[in-house]
Amino acid sequence: MATSGFKHLVVVKFKEDTKVDEILKGLENLVSQIDTVKSFEWGEDKESHEMLRQGFTHAFSMNFENKDGYVAFTSHPLHVEFSAAFTAVIDKIVVLDFPVAAVKSSVAV
Questions:
Q1: Which end of the chain has fewer CB atoms within 10 angstroms, the N or the C?
Q2: What is the DSSP secondary-structure string of 43-94?
Q3: 50, 52, 64, 55: which is closest to 93 by C-alpha?
Q4: Cα-flanking dihedrals φ and ψ of residue 22, to 5°?
Q5: What are phi and psi of 15, to 5 degrees?
Q6: Which residues form a coiled coil (predicted)?
Q7: So where are the chain's domains?
Q8: Mind listing the pLDDT tens digit for each residue in 28-70?
Q9: Assigned CATH topology for domain 14-100
């Protein structure tokens, strides 16, 4: 199976009283300034049962051309700075970083 890029997937539960809109604006600003981020998507869970959600509320997905692009992103000064603020408002987090095995690619609508 061929790989098609590298993905950075983050699932979080924010701390109580976190200004999530500000965090989202900061994240959108961050990815717009770093060219190695090929795409960025995020969402807030609205449908899962609490038992399945385990308290997690938001998911963030970034795609890179390859692992080198991801490494360049993580070491970028803007990412390092943003990560400190992001980490400070996280109650729980799961991070997965992996080469993508494309089975059925999405089609632009």
A1: C
A2: EE--SS-HHHHTT--EEEEEEESSHHHHHHHHHSHHHHHHHHHHHHTEEEEE
A3: 55
A4: -65, -40
A5: -65, 155
A6: none
A7: 14-100
A8: 999 999 999 999 999 999 888 877 888 899 999 999 999 999 9
A9: Alpha-Beta Plaits (3.30.70)
